[in-house]
Amino acid sequence: MLRLSFIVFMVLAAPLATIWGADAVFSKDSTHIYLVQWEQQPPRSSGECSLIDIDLGKKACAAVDLRNTVGAPLCGIACSDEGSLLCATKSSLWRFDPATRACSKLIAVPNGLELTDLAYDPTQSLLFATCRGPNGQQLFCLPKNADHWIPVYNRRSASVGFPVFGNDGRLYFSSRGDLWTGFLKGQTEPTLPALNAYSISSKTPDGWPKSIDVAELAAYRYAPVAFLETQNCTPDSTGLHALAVSKNFVYGSYSRMGGSGWGSLIRCKRETGSDSGKAERGIPGGERPDGKQAIPVLQSVEQVADESCMRLCASRDGTLVFYQLRGERVFLIKDDEKPEAMVIAGLKNLL
Fold it and tell me: For FRET with 206, which of 146, 161, 233, 312 sits at 20 to 30 Å CA-CA?
């Protein structure tokens, strides 16, 4: 009877909204913020749409309904170099032009997989995507004008959650609650382990593996901020969820990794430089690990808000950070200074 009561409690405590991918993004010129409207069960009685368009100049918002075009709820968005929004459902990627409101399909997700998150690298004009399938997580990237997804080789299989790129092309993501950083590297002749990982056995006439497109993830744990525990109750384990990169900091929603409850918005100094060799060698600069390499980063950690945020994103140039707390409470951080509360007309009716 105790086991049954516990299961019922967990079902009732589950959130009514589901969202997988990046659910907030600035426009390229930083004048608008676009939010994915979460799918709710039961559905809203009114105000159902796909995106919420916040005009920062007018302090107002508008609904953007793409449901008849994309045919499914959105699970993530990113902003491309041209200023169009890359909008993802679990099965397809779409391009939405905010100026003309035109929306067109770009590509389907690889067979048998569901898209779970996406991030855009402005230095390589490349979209990075995480997918979920029968064999667990798989990573892909989509270069500009490409007509097929390119697999991303993740040799040591660090799980990738909530990926986001800085304007220098450095990738940040959460893995089991900790902050990781690194780079995506493209190559056309992968090593044999990469070929084995993707079950590619075809060879050229001289016996060598055929040249294919593949990318590699080279990253290391940058800030071990997660609190992990085990005990016979709902765990208190806490780690990073949504991330955003400003000029000087990496912001993260720090909340429980199971269940609901407390959390906060924290930030730490960002890694600088674009030397992907740092990631290849495992730790910054390639020094031999001594257990102290994370101390400077951890010393820079500070709390920005005493609640975990529901949405979080940064402008392309890193001068603005937007976040939403529970309800319609939204804030803007300019140049990494004190957060400023915003009042957006009509936002309450759409969130």
Answer: 146
**Percent of all residues in the chain with a pLDDT value above 90, rounded to a whole number:** 53
Nearest Cα neighbor of 78 from 22, 138, 129 is 22
Torsion sign, CA atoms 36, 180, 247, 94: negative
Provide the residue ranges of all domains of the chain, joining segments of one domain with +.
Answer: 18-342
Q: Is residue 186 within 8 Å of 219, Cβ to Cβ?
A: no
CA-CA distance, 350 to 49, in Å (whole number)?
8
Q: Is 18-342 a domain of CATH 3.30.1330.10?
A: no
Give tens-digit pLDDT for 49-68.
Answer: 789 999 999 999 999 999 88
Q: What is the pLDDT of residue 190?
A: 45
Distances in Å between the Cα of 3 and the Cα atoms of 7, 8, 10, 11, 234 are 6, 9, 11, 13, 13
Model pTM score: 0.85
